[in-house]
Input
Amino acid sequence: AQSVTQPDIHITVSEGASLELRCNYSYGATPYLFWYVQSPGQGLQLLLKYFSGDTLVQGIKGFEAEFKRSQSSFNLRKPSVHWSDAAEYFCAVVGNYGGSQGNLIFGKGTKLSVKP
Amino acid sequence: EAQVTQNPRYLITVTGKKLTVTCSQNMNHEYMSWYRQDPGLGLRQIYYSMNVEVTDKGDVPEGYKVSRKEKRNFPLILESPSPNQTSLYFCASKPQGGGSPLHFGNGTRLTVT
Output
């Protein structure tokens, strides 16, 4: 079955430091990939998406992600973290076969804490 | 404003008392879906609907029902809630097309005692 793995359950970074959140997926062809952010008490908001083309995609709030086919990865990055970035981050891929076709498959999420 | 609206935001109920969580979207999206979010388990899909009168089971459909009589509405029904259905529930919608992103509601926190 297709899957998305976010290896880090919880990450703490200092404000102003750089950030990289990891995401690995299992998929045969070029996937549709997404990163979502969930602030406390809120629904999920789309940060960015990758379908094809340039493997480095820019999103909202200063985030970017890089698709690496050879590593089956789609890691999220931000050069300088702000306290308001503290949230939970979810990576997702669109399923392409069987019961998952067309549905988003989510990773279990990475919770980001930001130290002053 | 384009949005997915869920009601209620918070709900406390007792075991066995039927309840409905409503979901409505104003973006004319064909696809709608329900997820539950539990600590350490991420988001798990309950049911989804590709269009009006078409619904399918997701990963964790047991104990839930849905209906899609109109394009904009996709209610989640718990006929006989149990404590293991205590969770945070999200409704989401998107246009047809595999690459379209999901738009999420703000969630419904359900507690079943």
